[in-house]
Write a structure and sequence with these properties.
The chain is an alpha/beta fold. Helix content is about 50%, strand content about 15%. The strands form four sheets. Strands 1, 2, 3, 4, 8, 12 and 13 form a seven-stranded parallel beta sheet that branches. A four-stranded antiparallel beta sheet has the order 6-5-7-9. Keywords: Aminoacyl-tRNA synthetase, ATP-binding, Ligase, Nucleotide-binding, Protein biosynthesis.
Length: about 475
């Protein structure tokens, strides 16, 4: 059986998950489900990044140990993913003993390869970002993400010799041995390389909450460095059966804000220890809510559980994935959720299914309309292409154009009148509509699995119950 290994970024465990985290994780879940329907053996990894100064500070603010704090935060992620019906294969935590063991093995390989050296470093460190910033990155002396001045730090660290691997990374990106999509993000990565990137520190001094650097007890492995290794430690790197079976990853899904870490630093680390690179990295855009970046102070952080409570898990999945193409930056307007729910789900799919299944008392019918069949084939081809290119928004748009076509077909043929007059064309029309609904169910299974399962069961027992399907009640 052909394998497929897909990952999300692991989310920094400083707070509860918001819809930005859900957006990326839902993309991975839908792609995972689609690959399973294609008959592939899928391993889907997500998890939480649980070390670093910022987490230690947050824990202290709440009078908790860092471990207590991340135990609580990671449980929130698992809760939300469970309610959203995220069907992951493994949930890795960077505080897991398995992760630490794998990190030690990875670091030893890096050290033995000669890619690590010791040097003194002075720089500006943002605790919020958990990384060093250059002067040019600052706005009026402040970190642009956290709007506070970074700390001036001088310490002796271990560094990774990135320069040695940049030409090979550039070559692999150009030849698409390492595929980066969309093209705009690929060009962004090549731009980073052309502009020049410094060697990076892989350790910090005197950071208590982290994984110790095995070659020097006074150093701690930089939080984002060991976090990147989760993609292999979850598979029992380097000798585990899962690692041998599933690595290299077929697809890393990440956000635009961590592009450089995944498209330059991570491949360089793998090259240094002669391990295969991931096949593709898909970088989704960033989004705002009502035109502004999500922020607790602005009160515009949307809790996935609040969305689910209002619309249910499957509708929430659809509402998040149908906002804008993942390849672009976009804006979510919270007040549009109800309008979109009623327009697309209640009045769209829900109404179509209800109209057809009320008229058709049996799914055992004959004949199909040639025009609808031709349109179906066009949509099937479009859907397959979009799904295989991880364009979920565009795949949904294709499905809904077919929903609209079937609605128009009903309005044109008026099968309810033909039924009353016992017209011989009725069976062909109803069978065409049943055929259409069956395929809509197949297309939407990865997106709305529970609702499509309900519709499929209803269709299989058509005519045996007087109850309506009522798939998406109006709100």
């Amino acid at each position: 059986m052909e394998k497929f290994y897909i990952t999300t970024p692991i989310y920094y465990a400083t707070d509860r998950p918001h819809i930005g985290h859900a957006f990326a994780t839902l993309h991975a879940d839908v792609i995972s489900r689609h690959k399973k329907l294609q008959g592939k053996e899928v391993f889907f990894l997500t998890g939480t990044d649980e070390h670093g100064v910022k987490i230690a500070e947050k824990a202290a603010e709440e009078n908790k140990t860092p471990q207590e704090y991340v135990d609580e935060t990671s449980s929130h992620y698992k809760e939300v993913w469970n309610v959203l019906n995220i069907n992951f294969s493994d949930f890795i935590r960077t505080t897991d003993p398995k992760h630490k063991e794998g990190v030690f093995k990875f670091i030893k390989k890096l050290f033995d390869s000669g890619a690590i050296y010791k040097d003194k470093y002075k720089g500006l460190y943002c605790i919020g970002c958990e990384r060093f910033l250059a002067e040019k990155d600052l706005i009026n002396g402040l970190c642009p993400n956290h709007l506070r001045p970074p700390q001036k730090i001088s310490e002796e660290n271990y560094f990774f010799d990135l320069q040695k691997y940049l030409p090979e990374i550039r070559r692999k990106i150009k030849t698409e041995e390492l595929k980066i999509s969309p093209a705009s993000r690929r060009n962004e990565t090549l731009g980073f390389i052309e502009a020049g990137i410094d060697n990076f520190s892989i350790t910090r001094e005197k950071v208590k909450w982290g994984i110790p650097f095995p070659e020097d007890e006074n150093q701690t492995i930089y939080v984002w460095v060991e976090a990147l290794m989760n993609y292999v430690t979850a598979l029992d790197f380097p000798d585990g059966e899962k690692y041998k079976k599933f690595w290299p990853a077929d697809l890393h899904i990440i956000g635009a804000e961590i592009n450089k870490f995944h498209t330059v630093f991570w491949p360089a680390m793998l090259l240094a220890i002669n391990e295969p690179l991931p096949k593709e990295i898909f970088i989704h855009g960033l989004f705002t809510v009502n035109g502004q970046k999500m922020s607790k102070s602005l009160g515009n952080v949307i809790d996935p559980l609040a969305l689910i409570e209002k619309f249910g898990p499957d509708a929430s999945r659809y509402l998040l994935l149908s906002q804008f193409p993942a390849s672009e930056h976009g804006d979510i307007k919270e007040e549009q959720f109800i309008k979109k729910y009623n327009a697309d789900l209640a009045n769209g799919i829900g109404n179509l299914f209800e109209r057809v299944l009320t008229m058709a008392k049996s799914a055992d019918l004959r004949g199909k309309d040639a025009e609808i069949l031709a349109f179906y084939q066009k949509i099937q081809d479009d859907y397959s292409q979009k799904m295989n290119n991880y364009q979920l928004y565009e795949a949904l748009a294709a499905v809904f154009s077919f929903v609209k076509k079937l609605d128009q077909y009903i309005n044109t043929t008026e099968p309810w009148r033909l039924i009353q007059n016992k017209n011989p064309e009725t069976e062909k029309i109803l069978n065409t509509l049943i055929f259409g609904i069956k395929n809509i169910i197949v297309w939407l299974k990865p997106f709305m699995p529970k609702k499509m399962e309900k519709a499929e069961n209803y269709l299989e027992n058509l005519g045996q119950s007087s109850e309506k399907l009522n798939l998406f009640p109006r709100i």
